[in-house]
Amino acid sequence: MTSATATQTPTTGATAAKAGRRPLTAGRVVLYVFVTLTALVWLFPVVWAVLSSFRDYNYTSVHGYASLGGFTIQNYVHAWEQGEFTRHFLNSLIITVPAVLLTLFLASCVAFVVARYSFRFNLILLGLFTAANLLPQQALLIPLFRAYRSIPLPLWMSDSGQLLDSYWGLILVNVAFQTGFCTFVLSNYMKALPHEMYEAARVDGASVPVQFFRITLPLCRPALAALATLQVTWIYNEFYWATVLMQSGDKFPITSSLSNLRGQFFTDYNLLSAGSILVAIPVLIVFFLLQKQFVAGLTLGSTKG
């Protein structure tokens, strides 16, 4: 290699890099500014809540929220104690984990049948499960409340002796409303799996349960992780049915317990901000733990050519 060639190579690489760089036009500047402002608008309430949660109410009531000072961690201690978060976090765990697992399992079963078998009522079955997401939940308030009040349960399942005011009631209502969406997503995901793989499995003598548990579910792990993240977020943050179907305060999930931080005559918003941050932490942990699978499930097929 000559010296001329050696000196030409870096210059050529730099020229290629410059050629590959897109020019900065007025439209791109406007796009960058718009994206930056949008991100700041979305982040401002979160940053404001975090900042307020570390400030003393007496200080901010005198100096205002625009001032600096009065920082303390006592808001988190008082929010945990006053809101009885230990008990209500446990209630949310009892409701969310079974509801998410049962929703994903039932949706997987229905999606497998819809995606792998062709019969006359295939699309009708999928439409029935999806229709639950199109019906306003408030329209079912009165009939569902009366049904829950009339359905008895053994005392070892519910200390109220009925489906009303029991964990089972909240689990069932969340499963009923979330199964349709999960079925729709998983059925489309399973239809993309190669049919040749199932034909080879049938030739090898694999039964339908084996095809479902040992072939389909492992391949659907990205979609299941993405749905699990969404379902944990939705069911964990569910507030409407918890306040309607629960009558005992010690059974309320964590989102309903935030009302304990509101005073009768005034509300300490710094204390409420600290409680809101504590409530949001479990969802953030689940998202970061499943972040890789969540992104893989959402972007599947985006690079298929």
Quick synopsis:
The chain has 15 helices and no strands.
Strand content: under 5%
Terminal CA distance reads 40 Å
Q: What's the count of strands?
A: 0
How many helix segments? 15
Which architecture of the largest domain per CATH? Orthogonal Bundle
Low-confidence stretches: 1-9, 301-305
The rough form would be described as globular
CATH H-level name of the largest domain... which superfamily? MetI-like
Q: What proportion of the residues is helical, as a percent range?
A: over 70%
Which CATH top level class of the largest domain fits? Mainly Alpha
Q: For the residues shown, what is the average pLDDT?
A: 83
Order of helices and strands: HHHHHHHHHHHHHHH
Query: How many distinct domains?
Result: 2
Give the helix/strand class.
mainly alpha
Q: Name the quaternary structure.
A: single chain
Major sheet characteristics: none
What fold name goes in the CATH topology slot of the largest domain?
MetI-like fold
Rounded to the nearest angstrom, the radius of gyration is 27 Å
